[in-house]
Design brief:
72% of the residues lie in helices and 5% in strands. By secondary structure, it is mainly alpha-helical.
Length: 441
């Protein structure tokens, strides 16, 4: 039993095997959808256009969509409108008293907030899809119009197709979370990035073959990628353990000695959420301008906006870092409440050595958490920005940037952790079943 391989354990855990197969099947459906094109677009002109402008926000959007944007398929908007709607709703729960009250109502309030989030997702996706349709009609590549038959029919068809794709991905992500393994939305983004990694690798090797970049630089890029992955794994597994002591208790004539435990606090409590949220906010207002700003007759401000938001540009990097830091603190405040944790410890008789129970414990936890979040925000900014600066100088694909590596590694760690918890639960249930059968005999 001790030498049993993980694959053997998965084979014996029927529920886990079914969850893994369901997740793989859902991801296959998603990848097939990234090859179904939106009607009415010239694919050759679109391919040439994307190859010319695959940088800045447009290139990052294409990365999150797993190449669906570059092919202008039904999943071109990917899950970004839902992420943007989630950001807005979470901000509203902190600002609006009515939304804050809904959040406190438990499961029913959560369902209501989720429903509002879906409505807002439809609205954002509709606006974004309409903007895409207008921008596509006014865009050409080498004198060839991108849209074959422009007009109101094309606009309506594009909006219905793209919004339907977003809502289908939202449903598919919820099904993965409920019936599969891992977080569905994160896995959709993860699968898109991983699916495009081989093509990005071939692109780098082709650049080395043609002399666009030197072989030494290719080696340094791979070393950098491996170093970033190792650093991400180290930080994501790092914890600050706060000792929690429980006093002695007497049951009848017996006195039980006090137990000690620990409260684990991750350095990066917010996980991969800040980079995704930051990227979503960068993509939302500028995804349309990335298309519309390409023509020679486009407004000057659109062309300027595209140039400022190009990869490696100071304004782009400054906004990106600011959003990452903001969402690191914002999301940490949502998922971990020091007051509630201190109250739970006090009710259970636990205390932090040297700290009085109640408000002093809450202040101490907030003190520790704030400093951990600051370290986590610096870590996220460094991982996401430093490779961006280096890669922007040598036209390396986005898939080897810090943001993509962070998403891939973090989602992999979380998914493997869930799989291990299912395996452990399966083993415990098997031992309990054997114990019961042994008792009957």
């Amino acid at each position: 039993m001790a030498n049993e391989s993980p694959f053997g354990a998965i084979g014996q855990a029927t529920e886990l095997r079914q969850r893994i197969l369901f997740t793989l099947g859902a991801l296959v459906i998603y990848r097939l959808g990234t090859y179904i094109p939106v009607p009415g677009i010239d694919p050759l002109a679109l391919s040439e256009l994307v190859n010319q402008t695959n940088s800045g926000v447009l290139g990052m959007f294409n990365m999150f969509s797993g190449g669906a944007l570059g092919r202008m398929t039904i999943f071109a908007l990917t899950i970004i409108p839902y992420i943007s709607a989630s950001i807005i709703m979470q901000l509203m729960t902190s600002i609006s008293p009515q939304m804050a009250q809904l959040k406190k109502e438990g499961e029913s309030g959560r369902k209501t907030i989720n429903q509002y989030t879906r409505y807002l997702t439809v609205l954002l996706a509709t606006v974004q899809a309409w903007g895409f349709a207008i921008a596509l009609e006014g865009t050409s590549s080498s004198g060839v119009a991108l849209v074959i038959n422009p007009g109101i029919f094309f606009k309506v068809t594009t909006v219905v197709t793209l919004v339907g794709g977003v809502m289908f991905l939202l449903w598919l992500g919820e099904q993965i979370t409920e019936r599969g393994i891992g977080n569905g939305v994160s896995l959709l983004i993860f699968s898109g990035i991983v699916a495009e990694l081989p093509r990005a690798l071939v692109q780098i090797l082709e650049q080395g073959r043609t002399g666009a970049i030197s072989p030494l630089l290719i080696i340094l890029i791979f070393i950098l990628a491996i170093s970033v992955i190792a650093f991400i794994v180290f930080i994501e597994r790092s914890q600050r353990k706060i000792i929690v002591q429980y006093p002695k208790r007497q049951v009848g004539n017996k006195v039980f000695s006090g137990d000690s435990s620990h409260l684990p606090l991750k350095i990066n409590v917010s996980g991969v959420i800040p980079p995704i949220f930051a990227s979503a906010l960068l993509l939302l207002p500028t995804s349309i301008s990335s298309f519309a700003g390409l023509g020679s007759d486009s407004p000057e401000w659109l062309i300027t906006l595209n140039s400022f938001l190009g990869r490696g540009q100071p304004i782009y990097l400054a906004i990106y870092i600011g959003l990452i830091v903001f969402f690191a603190f914002f999301y940490t405040a949502i998922v971990f409440n020091p007051d509630d944790t201190a109250d739970n410890l006090k009710r259970n008789g636990g205390f932090v050595p040297g700290i009085r129970p109640g408000p002093p414990t809450s202040e101490y936890l907030d003190f520790v958490l704030t400093r951990l979040t600051a370290i986590g925000a610096i870590y996220l900014s460094a991982v996401c920005i430093l490779p961006e600066i280096l890669i922007s100088k040598y036209s390396i694909p986005f898939y080897f940037g810090g943001t993509s590596l962070l998403i891939v590694v973090t989602v992999s760690i979380d998914t493997v952790a869930q799989a291990q918890s299912h395996i452990i639960a399966h083993k415990y249930s098997g031992l309990i079943k054997k114990r019961r059968l042994g008792g009957v005999r």
